[in-house]
Design goal:
36% of the residues lie in helices and 28% in strands. By secondary structure, the chain is α+β, with helices and mostly antiparallel strands. The N and C termini lie far apart (97 Å). The relative contact order is 0.15.
Length: 190
């Protein structure tokens, strides 16, 4: 009889334990899926969605344009081929874009990049630019100490005073195959 009573007590205890665990899980699930504060927020937000925005809340065309800037591109023509370079939003890239059109003489440097000097007296601003850059094939840069442009056709190591201006979209093989000095025209792509 003691064994039977002991088994019955154990069964009752197990039932209470399972019931307690089950009610804790239900409470946790309900508090996670629909917390009281989110229910009131949902009601508030559904009300504000149906209200039309005030005229002062509607963005002006100028504000919309600033959110979606036009991608600036340079068209580079060399040896009868045209390449497109996308410029980044930096002071140096802005200044270069404002200088265009330019006709520059490029030459191979270190079997890694094609470089060209800017016209005499022309410099790009470097203040506030990063201290260096780790270029890969297709990167269009400024080497600040010399003031020259460089278009990398091979990956290279991090270089101090190298400033990223933009990126060649396609045709790196064509740039790499140009040998000796060549003249290239850089102009704003419209």
């Amino acid at each position: 009889m003691k064994k039977l009573l002991s088994l019955a007590m154990t069964a009752v205890l197990l039932i209470f334990c399972f019931a307690a665990c089950q009610s804790e899980n239900v409470q946790e699930e309900s508090s996670v899926s629909t917390p009281p504060s989110s229910q009131s927020q949902d009601n508030e937000s559904s009300e504000s969605v149906t209200d039309p925005p005030a005229i002062s809340e509607i963005p002006s065309p100028e504000e919309t344009e600033d959110e979606n800037p036009v991608q600036r591109q340079i068209r580079m023509t060399a040896e009868g081929q045209t390449y497109t370079i996308v410029l980044y939003e930096t002071p140096a890239a802005d200044a270069l874009y404002d200088m265009l059109p330019l006709e520059l003489t490029f030459e191979d440097f270190n079997s890694v990049e094609k470089i060209a000097d800017l016209p005499e007296g022309q410099r790009l601003p470097t203040e506030g630019e990063p201290d260096g850059f780790d270029p890969s094939a297709g990167d269009f840069c400024l080497y600040a100490p010399w003031g020259n442009l460089s278009l990398f056709y091979q990956d290279f190591r991090y270089s101090n005073d190298l400033i990223s201006l933009g990126r060649l979209e396609s045709g790196i093989e064509g740039i790499a195959s140009l040998s000796g000095e060549f003249t290239a025209t850089l102009e704003q792509a419209v």
